[in-house]
Amino acid sequence: MAGYPDERPRRLRRTPALRRLVAQTRVSSADLVLPLFVREGAVEPTPIAAMPGVVQHTRETLRKAAVEAVAAGVGGLMLFGVPASKDAAGSGATDPDGVLSVAVRDVVAEVGDATVVMADLCLDEFTDHGHCGVLTADGAVDNDATLARYAEMAVVLAESGVHVVGPSGMMDGQVAAVRSALDLAGHDDIAVLAYAAKYASAFYGPFREAVASSLTGDRKSYQQDPANLDEALREVALDVAEGADMVMVKPASSYLDVVRRVADAVSVPVAAYQVSGEYSMVEAAAANGWIDRERTILETLTSIRRAGAQIVLTYWAVEAAGWLE
Ligand code: PBG
Fold it and tell me: How far is the CA of 31 from the centre of ligand 1 (A)?
């Protein structure tokens, strides 16, 4: 009709059925991974004030949470341990009877292969200085001495039955160190999800409470500068070359450009971690009635998938799974 546009994109937006049919991005429960915290010696779950709705589990409630996640169809679990005591070497991380190894054994005993059981492979929850590695005499994070600790931790976790380890400390060579330690110990079937492009982010703030971190400084000497994009591609290429089976970008929402570039660059599955601060911001705004909680959560998850992440780690995994297929 003269004077009116011939192109009418609105036609495909008219009904919910049309919108569903043409939706280019879908989020399903199988894409979501639930991070879980377990605290050594806890007799009841401890709420994390900065993350309303998230707790540090006891051994018992962790098992229940794992069962609930499997029932919801969640694709995987990422376990974090909070030890009762910490030291300079992060000894708890490599103790077969330490909180994380015990949690892995408990969860695998409970859910078997019904979901993917992953463990964060890092020392920061276990060190008294709170850094992701061991320190040199002058207080710097010692890259290569840390690799030896990661190698040991990988084998301990594999022996506990973990399906996937997630090295998250951003040490150079960490994927190669973990891969070769696993292979040497006969665990060549254990996969590595590399926290490949991990930024030194303020969005990890609430996580510090979640794992009772003792960190006083920052992680800028090993995590990436938020200003850099090409560096992420370099980190990802290194991790893939070192044998990463999957790579992760972290945080998610402020780094969707990084997710897209990484997804375009590699053929291994790409994950993105919607971190504690991303969670807390939405919860805080929703609690004030400033945004629609459910719509906002689904929009964030859709955006992360749309940017190219096949897998999304999110503290909303179980709840969101209930809204999704
Ligand atoms: C390191 C680790 C951190 C997170 C996941 N693994 C903390 C950090 O690097 O400072 C943050 C996750 C979150 O904020 O939700 N073990």
Answer: 20
Report field, pTM of the whole predicted structure over 0.85: yes
Q: How many domains does the chain have?
A: 1
Cα distance between residue 247 and residue 286, in whole Å = 31
Residue 32 lies in a domain: yes
Please give the share of the chain, as a percent, with pLDDT higher than 70: 99
Closest CA to 187 of 229, 144, 245: 245
What's the pLDDT at 325?
75
Residue 2 confidence (pLDDT): 66
- The verdict on residue 224 lying in a domain is yes
Q: Is residue 294 part of a domain?
A: yes
198 classed as catalytic: yes
Ligand 1: which residues within 6 Å by Cβ? 120, 122, 124, 168, 204, 207, 219, 275-276
Residue numbers in the chain where pLDDT is lower than 50: none
Instruction: List the CATH number of the domain containing 31.
Output: 3.20.20.70
Expressed as residue numbers, the domain containing 184 is 26-323
